[in-house]
Amino acid sequence: MNRADLYAVLDRFLAALGARDPHSLDWAEGAFHSENNVMLEIGDGVWGTIDRLGDYKLRFADEKTAQVGYFGTVIEPIEESAFTLRLALNSAGQITECEMLIVRQSDSGIKFENCRYWDKPILNREVEAPVSRAEMVRLSNGYFDTLQRNDGTIHTKFHPDCNRVENGVQTTRNPDFAKIVPVSALGCEEQFRMGNYRYDDDLRARRFPLVDEQRGLVLAFGFIDHSGRLREFQLTDGRTVKSPVLRPHSFYISELFKIDHGMIEQIEANFITVPYRMPSPWDSL
Predict the structure, then answer these.
(1) What are phi and psi of 143, to 5 degrees?
(2) CATH architecture of the domain covering 3-103
(3) What pLDDT does residue 252 have?
(4) Which of the four CATH numbers 3.30.300.20, 3.40.50.720, 3.40.50.300, 3.10.450.50 does domain 126-284 have?
(5) Residues 83, 162, 185, 121: what is their CA dihedral angle, to the nearest 10 degrees?
């Protein structure tokens, strides 16, 4: 399927979601459908609670694997929530897989203040100096290797101006958020070279199902596990700091990496708290 075909299915899906009408879509027999890392019957979950979609819309596609992805928001009672969507299609254009992550701040386990959802031109720009599909995945996986038990070693390549947005908040070069999380004043690579994320014990069940080679985008899913055993640790500048996670804890994550010139230029992430070491239903397929 080409990009136009994939986007057409995505548009129909989003229209059906906004109308709470899942059965207007063409689902393959035995299609898999998950929300927040739990397999649900088609029509359950957000299908029954959505009021409308928000204004933020970022879409991307992988023609090679017939998958299409979307970052946006859903508006339900109480709040607007960051939203990640991945659809996989068969040769007939039927939906075979639907994976959704919805960051409902009221019950996601971690609350980000002053969330904003805005267009970032860099994510829509076509690549200027593309690298191979395998290299795109390697750089994305290297980000997770860098984050896992972060000790200052860099296992990927960052553009000097790389920024990261998490759950609607920019967590790099953000002086306002740095008043709450001081490391947020730094850029991507600077944060990692300091060894700020030593408490991230395992980047587990990593998947890279969608690679948009034209736009230089890689969509990844996985988990960040925190054992909670690390009470304090030393940064690479010699300072000793306390871990913010002192009990067993896991995040289910979706991350979008923008890669150009062989470097990560931008990161967009949505994640929620799930039971510690929760398995992925997608790994058993």
Answers:
(1) -60, -45
(2) Roll (3.10)
(3) 98
(4) 3.10.450.50
(5) -50
